[in-house]
Amino acid sequence: MPRFFLETIAEDDIQITGADAHHIGYALRMRPGEHLTVCANNIDYDCVIREITKDTVFLDAVSKHACAAEPSVFVTLYQAVPKAGKLEEIIQKSIELGVSRIVPVLTARCVARPKAAEFQKKLSRLQKIAESAAKQSGRGCIPEVAPLHTFAEALESAKQADCGVFLYEGGGIRFSEVPLTGKKQIALWIGSEGGFDPKEAEAAKAAGFYPVWLGERILRCETAPQAALAILMHLTGNL
Predict the structure, then answer these.
(1) Distance CA 124, CA 121 (A)
(2) CA-to-CA distance for 191 and 106, rounded, in angstroms?
(3) How far apart are CA 129 and CA 47, in angstroms?
(4) What is the pLDDT of residues 184-222, one digit of tens each?
(5) Rounded Cα distance, 70 and 53, in Å
(6) What pLDDT score was predicted for residue 217?
(7) Rounded to whole angstroms, how far apart are CA atoms 131 and 109?
(8) Would you state the pLDDT for residue 105?
(9) pLDDT one-digit tens code per residue, 128-165
(10) DSSP label of 218
(11) What's the farthest any 2 CA atoms get from each other in the chain?
């Protein structure tokens, strides 16, 4: 069933406007009487189309329920900026796996070093990739892709989480040893192609984050978040 997102919703008068309305009427060629899903605030509304005009689709809610695809934990991925288009793949796959927010971080070993203003110009495209991934995977919300953060900014932000984890090739504990019971806000840190600088790792440890080692095999920076999120979702009962 086609899926669309609204930031706010009036249950007695649901309306879709703009590009999504055009997509429903012209690309999908939907007609009154057909059903689609509207998502708002992690709630799925099964709706029937009442009327379609040039720029608005009017809907009636048939039923509503909490989105089953939303995990019970809010995971923020702090991803060191990788080379080329790898960040787009990371955003797409991590949202499919249940991440709730993605924060691109400029770390010491990042090969790609975009300026904040330069990165800001790419943000709308990255957010569209996030929206597409959320629709495809049946999510109840569109995870935010945040502006570019420095390591220090990201570290301060991540301190608000109940639990912080960073993948570290320099050694650490296993994921199964991280105390995740009862944790609702989790910060997951992934390095770029060169991993984390030892000073960054020490700063993360000093902030109370757990260094986690995934074994002897070396994972690419676009593979590591997928592996870590899959393990994390499994350990928290969300996969």
Answers:
(1) 7
(2) 10
(3) 25
(4) 999 999 999 889 999 999 999 999 999 999 888 889 999
(5) 32
(6) 86
(7) 29
(8) 97
(9) 999 999 999 999 999 999 999 999 999 999 999 999 99
(10) P
(11) 60
- Contact status, residue 143 vs residue 92, Cβ threshold 8 Å: no
**CA of 214: how far to CAs of 8, 173, 206, 211, 221, in Å?**
40, 9, 21, 10, 13
How many CA atoms does the CB half-sphere of 227 hold within 13 Å? 17
Nearest to 144 by CA among 131, 135, 154: 131
Query: Can you tell me whether residue 71 is helix, strand or coil?
Result: coil
* Model confidence at 85: pLDDT above 90: no
**Pure H helices in 25-115:** 86-96
User: What's the pLDDT band for 71 if we cut at 50, 70, 90?
Assistant: very high
Q: Which of 47, 199, 172 is nearest to 108 (CA)?
A: 199
Q: Is the CA virtual torsion 10, 29, 131, 119 positive or negative?
A: negative
Q: How many CB atoms lie within 10 A of CB 47?
A: 23
Nearest to 188, CA basis, from 98, 92, 119: 98
Tokens representing residue 50 in the block: 């009442």
SS3 category, 131: helix
pLDDT tens sequence across 105-131: 999 999 999 999 999 999 999 999 999
Integer-rounded Cα radius of gyration of the chain: 20
- Write the burial class of residue 155 (CB in 10 Å: 0-12 exposed, 13-18 middle, 19+ buried): buried
Q: CA separation (Å) from 11 to 64, 90, 212, 225?
A: 10, 34, 45, 37
Residue with tokens 């593979």: 223
The gap between the terminal CA atoms of the chain, to the nearest Å, is: 23
C-alpha 82/C-alpha 112 separation (Å) is: 6
Q: The pTM is what?
A: 0.90
**Which two structure tokens, joined as six digits, stand for 23?**
């997509």
